[in-house]
Write a structure and sequence with these properties.
Strand order of the largest sheet: 3-2-1-5
Order of helices and strands: EEEEHEEHH
Distance between the termini: 47 Å
Helix content: 10-25%
Strand content: 15-25%
Oligomer: single chain
């Protein structure tokens, strides 16, 4: 399968349990895809974390494999769209570019007591679309 330069769109879905890349042609038909799961780190009940380096490597691998499966290189991409976990939080070290700590996943409950103490959990909903959690 041959594709002209800038003729495909890559959709990267970085989800709670896996990373996926799907390449679409001009008509929106899937051309190639690859998906890999990543570890769920649960050191204590209610705690859920992800290894940000592992996720980054999984995304890179998914893109690389999907491009190879389609028989193209990155020059064939017109655009890349990314969806992510939104509420998952990771802090990166400015000097090294490395994560400071594993990413705290949206379903993690370690801050529940602190959140309960701040009162109205909907006070930022109009601005963010989400309650404080």
């Amino acid at each position: 399968m041959s594709h002209a330069p800038r003729s495909l769109v890559a959709a990267i879905d970085q989800g709670t349990t896996s990373s996926r890349c799907i390449l679409f042609d001009h008509d929106g038909r899937p051309v190639a895809s690859h998906q890999l799961e990543h570890r769920q780190i649960t050191p204590r009940p209610g705690w859920v974390a992800h290894d940000a380096d592992e996720i980054l490597e999984r995304v890179r691998t998914c893109v690389r494999v999907a491009l190879r499966e389609a028989g193209v290189d990155a020059a064939a991409l017109a655009a890349v769209g990314i969806s992510n976990q939104r509420e998952t939080t990771v802090v990166w070290d400015r000097q090294t570019g490395r994560p400071v700590h594993p990413a705290i996943v949206w379903q993690d409950t370690r801050t529940a007591d602190a959140v309960a103490g701040i009162g109205d959990q909907d006070r930022f909903r109009a601005r963010t679309g989400l309650p404080v959690r």
